[in-house]
Design a protein that fits this description.
single chain; two-stranded parallel ribbon; 8 helices; 49% helix; globular
Length: 175
Protein backbone atom coordinates (compact mmCIF):
# COMPACT_ATOMS: atom_id res chain seq x y z
CA UNK A 1 0.00 0.00 0.00
CA UNK A 2 1.45 3.34 -1.04
CA UNK A 3 -0.01 6.76 -0.25
CA UNK A 4 1.36 10.22 -0.90
CA UNK A 5 0.75 13.76 0.27
CA UNK A 6 1.68 16.81 -1.79
CA UNK A 7 1.80 20.49 -0.88
CA UNK A 8 1.77 22.68 -3.98
CA UNK A 9 2.52 26.39 -4.23
CA UNK A 10 -0.57 28.60 -4.03
CA UNK A 11 -0.36 29.29 -7.79
CA UNK A 12 1.66 26.51 -9.45
CA UNK A 13 2.80 27.15 -13.00
CA UNK A 14 3.59 24.97 -15.98
CA UNK A 15 2.00 23.42 -19.02
CA UNK A 16 2.07 20.04 -17.26
CA UNK A 17 -0.78 21.12 -14.97
CA UNK A 18 -3.35 20.62 -17.73
CA UNK A 19 -2.44 16.92 -17.89
CA UNK A 20 -2.90 16.23 -14.17
CA UNK A 21 -5.81 13.92 -13.45
CA UNK A 22 -6.67 10.85 -11.42
CA UNK A 23 -3.57 8.64 -11.79
CA UNK A 24 -5.70 5.66 -12.84
CA UNK A 25 -6.85 7.58 -15.92
CA UNK A 26 -3.36 8.46 -17.13
CA UNK A 27 -1.05 6.44 -19.35
CA UNK A 28 2.07 5.21 -17.52
CA UNK A 29 4.43 7.37 -19.59
CA UNK A 30 2.37 10.50 -18.80
CA UNK A 31 2.37 9.60 -15.08
CA UNK A 32 6.17 9.31 -15.18
CA UNK A 33 6.54 12.76 -16.76
CA UNK A 34 4.09 14.30 -14.29
CA UNK A 35 5.88 12.60 -11.39
CA UNK A 36 9.02 14.59 -12.19
CA UNK A 37 7.10 17.83 -12.73
CA UNK A 38 5.29 17.42 -9.40
CA UNK A 39 8.53 16.75 -7.52
CA UNK A 40 10.12 19.83 -9.11
CA UNK A 41 7.15 22.09 -8.31
CA UNK A 42 5.89 20.85 -4.94
CA UNK A 43 6.76 22.62 -1.74
CA UNK A 44 6.66 19.27 0.04
CA UNK A 45 6.03 15.61 -0.80
CA UNK A 46 5.54 12.77 1.68
CA UNK A 47 5.20 9.08 0.87
CA UNK A 48 3.88 6.33 3.14
CA UNK A 49 4.40 2.64 2.38
CA UNK A 50 2.73 -0.22 4.23
CA UNK A 51 3.97 -3.79 3.75
CA UNK A 52 1.79 -6.69 2.70
CA UNK A 53 2.01 -8.41 6.08
CA UNK A 54 0.66 -5.33 7.89
CA UNK A 55 -2.34 -5.34 5.54
CA UNK A 56 -2.85 -9.06 6.20
CA UNK A 57 -2.84 -8.47 9.97
CA UNK A 58 -5.42 -5.70 9.76
CA UNK A 59 -7.39 -4.69 6.71
CA UNK A 60 -6.92 -2.59 3.60
CA UNK A 61 -8.76 0.46 4.96
CA UNK A 62 -6.65 0.52 8.12
CA UNK A 63 -3.50 0.12 6.02
CA UNK A 64 -4.61 2.91 3.68
CA UNK A 65 -5.12 5.28 6.58
CA UNK A 66 -1.78 4.29 8.10
CA UNK A 67 0.02 4.93 4.79
CA UNK A 68 -1.76 8.28 4.46
CA UNK A 69 -0.77 9.24 8.00
CA UNK A 70 2.87 8.31 7.27
CA UNK A 71 2.79 10.42 4.11
CA UNK A 72 1.39 13.44 5.97
CA UNK A 73 3.94 13.04 8.78
CA UNK A 74 6.80 13.06 6.23
CA UNK A 75 5.80 16.42 4.77
CA UNK A 76 8.50 19.02 5.37
CA UNK A 77 7.42 21.71 5.77
CA UNK A 78 4.32 20.20 7.36
CA UNK A 79 0.76 20.74 6.18
CA UNK A 80 -1.55 23.14 7.97
CA UNK A 81 -4.69 21.43 6.62
CA UNK A 82 -5.56 18.35 4.57
CA UNK A 83 -7.58 17.69 1.45
CA UNK A 84 -8.01 13.93 1.20
CA UNK A 85 -9.52 11.68 -1.43
CA UNK A 86 -12.76 10.53 0.19
CA UNK A 87 -11.42 9.66 3.65
CA UNK A 88 -10.69 11.62 6.79
CA UNK A 89 -7.88 10.99 9.25
CA UNK A 90 -9.33 11.88 12.66
CA UNK A 91 -6.08 10.97 14.47
CA UNK A 92 -4.29 13.82 12.68
CA UNK A 93 -5.11 17.08 14.50
CA UNK A 94 -5.38 19.29 11.41
CA UNK A 95 -8.40 20.79 9.67
CA UNK A 96 -9.29 18.40 6.86
CA UNK A 97 -11.83 17.65 4.21
CA UNK A 98 -12.53 14.33 2.53
CA UNK A 99 -13.49 14.94 -1.10
CA UNK A 100 -15.37 12.23 -2.99
CA UNK A 101 -13.54 11.60 -6.28
CA UNK A 102 -10.89 14.02 -5.03
CA UNK A 103 -8.23 12.65 -7.37
CA UNK A 104 -10.38 13.87 -10.29
CA UNK A 105 -11.48 17.16 -8.69
CA UNK A 106 -8.56 18.53 -6.69
CA UNK A 107 -5.10 19.32 -8.10
CA UNK A 108 -3.13 18.47 -4.95
CA UNK A 109 -5.01 15.18 -4.47
CA UNK A 110 -4.47 14.26 -8.12
CA UNK A 111 -0.75 15.05 -7.77
CA UNK A 112 -0.58 12.87 -4.64
CA UNK A 113 -2.30 10.02 -6.50
CA UNK A 114 0.29 10.28 -9.29
CA UNK A 115 3.20 10.25 -6.83
CA UNK A 116 1.73 7.23 -5.03
CA UNK A 117 0.96 5.29 -8.22
CA UNK A 118 4.37 5.86 -9.81
CA UNK A 119 6.10 4.96 -6.53
CA UNK A 120 4.07 1.75 -6.26
CA UNK A 121 4.65 0.85 -9.92
CA UNK A 122 8.40 1.33 -9.49
CA UNK A 123 8.32 -0.91 -6.39
CA UNK A 124 6.54 -3.58 -8.43
CA UNK A 125 9.24 -3.40 -11.11
CA UNK A 126 11.87 -3.87 -8.37
CA UNK A 127 9.91 -6.79 -6.90
CA UNK A 128 9.68 -8.40 -10.35
CA UNK A 129 13.47 -8.77 -10.28
CA UNK A 130 13.36 -10.29 -6.79
CA UNK A 131 10.35 -12.54 -7.49
CA UNK A 132 10.53 -13.44 -11.20
CA UNK A 133 7.79 -15.31 -12.99
CA UNK A 134 4.82 -13.37 -11.68
CA UNK A 135 4.97 -10.57 -14.25
CA UNK A 136 4.88 -7.86 -11.59
CA UNK A 137 6.69 -5.38 -13.84
CA UNK A 138 3.92 -5.73 -16.42
CA UNK A 139 0.68 -5.88 -14.42
CA UNK A 140 2.05 -4.17 -11.29
CA UNK A 141 0.45 -6.74 -9.00
CA UNK A 142 -3.12 -6.06 -10.06
CA UNK A 143 -5.42 -9.02 -10.46
CA UNK A 144 -5.14 -9.58 -14.19
CA UNK A 145 -5.70 -12.92 -15.92
CA UNK A 146 -1.93 -13.21 -16.35
CA UNK A 147 -1.32 -12.55 -12.65
CA UNK A 148 -3.93 -15.11 -11.62
CA UNK A 149 -2.43 -17.70 -14.00
CA UNK A 150 1.06 -17.05 -12.61
CA UNK A 151 -0.25 -17.38 -9.05
CA UNK A 152 -1.82 -20.74 -9.89
CA UNK A 153 1.40 -21.90 -11.52
CA UNK A 154 3.86 -20.65 -8.86
CA UNK A 155 1.77 -20.17 -5.74
CA UNK A 156 1.98 -16.90 -3.81
CA UNK A 157 5.32 -15.16 -3.48
CA UNK A 158 6.57 -13.89 -0.11
CA UNK A 159 5.18 -10.42 -0.96
CA UNK A 160 1.66 -11.47 -1.91
CA UNK A 161 -1.10 -10.45 0.48
CA UNK A 162 -2.53 -13.69 1.79
CA UNK A 163 -5.75 -11.88 2.73
CA UNK A 164 -6.33 -10.79 -0.90
CA UNK A 165 -9.24 -12.86 -2.21
CA UNK A 166 -7.56 -14.47 -5.28
CA UNK A 167 -4.51 -15.44 -3.20
CA UNK A 168 -6.63 -16.58 -0.27
CA UNK A 169 -8.83 -18.69 -2.55
CA UNK A 170 -5.76 -20.18 -4.22
CA UNK A 171 -4.14 -21.08 -0.90
CA UNK A 172 -7.38 -22.65 0.39
CA UNK A 173 -7.80 -24.56 -2.88
CA UNK A 174 -4.28 -26.02 -2.59
CA UNK A 175 -4.80 -27.24 0.98
Amino acid sequence: MVAAAVILPRHPEGGWLQDVNDSKLLKPEIREILFGCILETAISVGIGIIAHDVIDKGNILRATKLAMRQAVEKLCPPADSLLIDYLRLPEIPLPQKGITNGDSLCLSIACASIIAKVTRDRLMVEMDAVHPGYGLARHKGYCTQQHTANLRRLGPSPIHRLSFRPVKDLVLWQV
